[in-house]
Design goal:
The chain has 143 residues and is of the alpha+beta class. It has one domain: Histidine kinase-like ATPase, C-terminal domain (Heat Shock Protein 90, 2-Layer Sandwich), CATH 3.30.565. It has four helices and five strands, in the order E-H-H-E-E-H-H-E-E.
């Protein structure tokens, strides 16, 4: 009797310290999970979006305080990949930040949200502004 390999999880929940090496490590886990599900074609935009959200949570939301935590809830659905990142910071005015565009000259910071909106079909925030949720298409034809 043949045994089948285990089916990779479709849900990834993690809590990490607000440190960039922890963010990088978690992004590698996300990439591996996407590849296990045959989603290599969308791995770049999903991983980039995750990295931007996680970095923003660590650097801006939690103000680089390693004692504060970042939560990730990552789900692979039938048509969508849902990425949710929560930090323990005070939150920010996402309504104003959402108006930012990539055409801000040579600015090297502050473009994370604009990058995420390029790849995600839907972006939502909680009222406080310390949680972002992205929905990204699993296939190119959904975009």
């Amino acid at each position: 009797m043949k045994t089948r390999p285990p089916i990779p999880a479709r849900v990834l929940r993690r809590e990490i310290p607000s440190r960039l090496p922890a963010v990088e490590s978690l992004c590698r886990v996300i990439r591996a999970l996407l590849q296990q599900h045959g989603l290599a074609a969308v791995a770049f935009p999903v991983e980039l979006s995750a990295r931007e959200c996680l970095n923003n949570a660590a650097l801006h939301g939690n103000r680089r305080l390693a004692t504060k935590r970042i939560g990730l809830d990552f789900r692979i659905g039938r048509k969508w990949i849902r990425l949710q990142v929560t930090d323990q910071g005070r939150g920010y005015d996402w309504r104003r930040a959402r108006a930012a565009t990539l055409s801000e000259g040579t600015k090297t910071s502050g473009r994370g949200l604009a990058i995420c909106t390029l790849y995600a079909q839907r972006v939502a925030f909680n009222q406080r502004g310390n949680r972002i949720t992205l929905w990204l298409a699993k296939s190119k034809k959904e975009q």
